Amino acid sequence: MGKTMCWEFKNCNREKDNSCPAVTEMAGRSCWLVAGTMCGSQVQGTAAQKLGNCRECDFYKKIKGREI
User: Fold this and answer.
1) Is residue 32 one of the residues assigned to a domain?
2) Could you tell me the residue range of the domain that residue 41 belongs to?
3) How far is it, in rounded angstroms, from Cα 7 to Cα 26?
4) Number of structural domains the chain divides into
5) Residue 1 domain-assigned?
6) What is the pLDDT of residues 29-68, one digit of tens each?
7) For residue 40, which of 57, 61, 62, 63 has the smallest C-alpha distance?
8) 0.85 cut: is pTM over it?
């Protein structure tokens, strides 16, 4: 069993249609570093622009707190 990816944790199904850069760039464990990710139903900005929102994300908090 592999480590949980953001799209699995958030149950967003973005991996099915590759509609999120976290999927296409294979960055499901560090999605906060990828520009233009789909969070909720909105495209986010650059990594610097979205980091504040990412710090409030339950997936980000879990990854930064301990491995899942």
Assistant:
1) yes
2) 6-65
3) 11
4) 1
5) no
6) 999 999 999 887 789 999 999 999 999 999 999 999 865 5
7) 57
8) no
